[in-house]
Amino acid sequence: MKRRLFLTLIAAATATSASMIAAPVAQAADEVKIGFLVKQPEEPWFQDEWKFAEMAAKEKGFTLVKIGAPSGEKVMSAIDNLAAQKAQGFIICTPDVKLGPGIVAKAKADKLKMMTVDDRLVDGSGKPIESVPHMGISAYNIGKQVGDGIAAEIKKRGWDMKDVGAIDVTYEQLPTAHDRTAGATDALVAAGFPKANIVAAPQAKTDTENAFNAANIALTKNPKYKHWVAYGLNDEAVLGAVRAAEGRGFKADNMIGIGIGGSDSALNEFKKPNPTGFFGTVIISPKRHGEETSELMYAWIKDGKAPPPLTLTTGMLATRDNVSQVREQMGLASK
Ligand code: GLA
């Protein structure tokens, strides 16, 4: 009797210790946790990125941790927090590209894989940190699409270019923003638009309110133009300029604003019964930036396959007349 009990106990103990050893290993292999940090969680573009990242998480079966990180401090504590939760990697759109070396060091110290999206980190001398895989938009070319679209519409309306002012909502500290507006400026000038009529309107932050303030100054200082056009790094920048122009009586007939993005800020504008000065947007892909980056990070963690060092995505110009077709073509229709 005694011996039987003893053997049973041994067997139970062996089974328990075996499962205790086996369990954490199996969990570590199976449970992938990925952070997705964005600089402006309130902006529709980033909401869309998160939505598509969630789709990847559902499909692949990993846990997605969404974190709004609008400051350097928030980024640093979020990375530590992810490490504490046993995440293996994260994707980030940083609030400031100059935080680059600090973020890289923090991720390394916490042994987390990292990939950037939208805004590419720079080193101390302002050069992109090429060791961190990145997915961004082909900023200069997309800016050119904006400029070409504005020039085509000016011509269609038969405006004399000398009577047209251009509000260039700038945010020079962000390289992708610089490249986008530079592309738009170059395309306009190439189409015959007078360079002297382009008014730089630097915004303090990349949101509608700051663009509105910047555009108001540009409008006040240049009362001589009969018509206006506007461009900037995203839809929010152009919406700010459009609202400022409206305030001074430049409505749809006298304003051509083309943004970049194609998320709700633009879609809501197109849904208004009457057209506004927000004429169009170059739709870019939150699906690729949210879903594909997450899948790449997942494959990196799971199979050790690192993402491509640099992926640049494209966009398509849409106006209120063809926005549905363009979204369909870009695989965004079911949103
Ligand atoms: C930057 C902008 C966003 C969006 C993304 C797209 O992060 O601030 O509004 O345009 O780029 O990559």
UniProtKB/TrEMBL annotation:
Signal peptide: 1-28
Cell compartment(s), UniProt: Periplasm
Keyword annotations from UniProtKB, A to Z: Periplasm, Signal, Sugar transport, Transport
Site location (The binding site for the sugar molecule has not yet been established, but C-87 may be involved): C93
Listed GO CC annotations: outer membrane-bounded periplasmic space
Periplasmic binding protein/LacI sugar binding domain span: 33-306
GO MF assignments: carbohydrate binding
InterPro entries for the chain: AraF (IPR026266), Bact_Solute-Bind_Prot2 (IPR050555), Peripla_BP/Lac1_sug-bd_dom (IPR001761), Peripla_BP_I (IPR028082)
Keyword presence, Transport: yes
One BP annotation, GO: L-arabinose transmembrane transport
Domain of life where this protein originates: Bacteria
Family of this protein: Belongs to the bacterial solute-binding protein 2 family.
The protein, known as: L-arabinose-binding periplasmic protein
